[in-house]
Design goal:
The structure is a homodimer. By secondary structure, chain A is an alpha+beta fold. Chain A has two domains: about 1-70, Arc Repressor Mutant, subunit A (Orthogonal Bundle); about 75-215, no CATH class. Helices cover about 50% and strands about 15% of the residues of chain A. Chain A has ten helices and nine strands. Chain A has helices spanning about 1-10, 15-25, 30-40, 40-55, 75-85, 95-105, 115-130, 140-150, 175-185, 205-215, and strands at about 30, 60-65, 65-70, 110, 115, 160-165, 170-175, 190-195, 200. In chain A, the strands form four sheets. A three-stranded antiparallel beta sheet of chain A has the order 1-3-2. In chain A, helix 2 crosses helix 3 and helix 3 (about 30-40) packs across helix 4 (about 40-55). At the A-B interface, helix 1, helix 2 and helix 5 of A face helix 1, helix 2 and helix 5 of B. The first copy, chain A, binds a DNA duplex through helix 4.
DNA sequence: ACGACACTTCGGCCCGCGCCGAAACGTCGC
DNA sequence: GCGACGTTTCGGCGCGGGCCGAAGTGTCGT
């Protein structure tokens, strides 16, 4: 159980937790961006990043004078969401600005590489109605055909996976299929990020696209 | 991400991690037992237990002058195993005694209320061959019948669930079905604990019983 | 009623570590 | 080459928290 304490210690600091939370958007951030986000000095952030990378939670990608870091993979995102789900919805966020940001996240957001929040739930129930997935988020044979029509190509990565939502407390679609759908939706302009946050909204084009696919919103 | 840091902090201490690890056997321990296990003073253990209970990881059950504590539920066990899996197999245990104990755990152990280790993997592949579960550990309709013949009764709890193994890195059967099978095996004397640890072995009667059920070992 | 025992509370010690600013290093643009 | 900028290293500060022992509370057996 020594190993458990070590990985927990990495996440037990609010600054490091804030960094991981920011990286949950699936993108790579520079060290300075993360320092600003977590409201600490660049030197402090630098040390935290080194620790998180050494611990295997993050990977880095140096480019010129920049140090880009990102989550080490979907498994890290899943661990983070699992722990956040466990802690559950804490006290209501204070202030109008924080409250509306929180509400936007609850409506829809990316969870590393797939959709979560109410939008993720809507996608899941839509896929369920279409027979693409079963109630426990397994892809059906006909569902695989449906996905391939959207350009999905099976790879080594697990096709589908349940990811527990920390706002809705309902499992939603993760894994390669979830990631692919999210990617397609972005490409087609069906969803877009709100500012630079993880929160996303379904665009008018997205509403129409979803209807044409037979998905309910 | 504040919530994440809080739950992580609970597990970030080696003494609290050791306590949780001990409780992963699914039984209730007294405060003194846990203090001895973690090699700290009773007063120290007492404070840790209070924190873990307040954090929702443990539940207590006071009986006379004893304070029994146990994991708050399967979801806690799943979180613990997920985090341990992530950390992965650390450095080899030092010393002959520790090494053989570690090997026994790898062969077979309980993971809160179901089987894990090589024994858990064997059970999973046996159930897969029998068509009781699918490759992603969903119970098939015929599998449900098979389980009911072994006395399984569906309840509110999720029937099946994948739990990632920290020794084998392979998902095995958790959830209500996994717990029921483990219980039945104990009742029939097919498996038994090694000493007072989480490690279990398949008894000769168990080997025969598994064969009769059509399970491979 | 008494002692034994399980557990808790409190005070105090001390180590770990998160923080910063200053300074050094490396890269980029001009 | 030079300055601007992103990043890292280092020293030092201060707080949080894990540890223990001593003393107190409650329960059990006799």
């Amino acid at each position: 159980m020594e190993a458990l304490a070590q990985v927990a210690a990495l996440l037990a600091d609010r600054t490091r937790a804030a960094i991981c939370g920011a990286l949950l958007d699936g993108r790579a951030w520079t060290a300075t961006e993360l320092a600003a986000h977590a409201r600490v000095a660049p030197s402090t952030a630098s040390e935290h990043l080194t620790r998180l990378i050494d611990g295997g939670l993050l990977v880095e990608h140096r480019q010129g004078r920049h140090r880009y870091v990102a989550l080490a993979g979907p498994h890290v995102a899943e661990l983070l969401e699992a722990m956040t789900s466990f802690a559950g919805p804490g006290p209501k966020p204070r202030g109008l600005r924080a409250a509306s940001a929180s509400e936007a996240m609850a409506r829809g957001r990316t969870c590393y590489d797939h959709l979560a929040g109410k939008l993720g739930i809507a996608l899941k129930s839509g896929l369920l109605d279409l027979g693409v997935v079963t109630a426990d988020l397994t892809i059906t044979p006909s569902g695989l055909v449906w996905l391939k029509e959207l350009g999905f190509e099976p790879s080594k990565r697990q096709v589908s996976r349940a990811c527990l939502d920390w706002t809705e407390r309902v499992p939603h679609l993760a894994g390669a299929a979830g990631a692919h759908l999210c990617e397609v939706f972005f490409e087609r302009g069906w969803i877009k990020r709100i500012g630079t946050t993880r929160a996303v909204v379904l665009t008018p084009a997205g509403e129409q696209g979803w209807r044409e696919l037979g998905l309910t919103t």
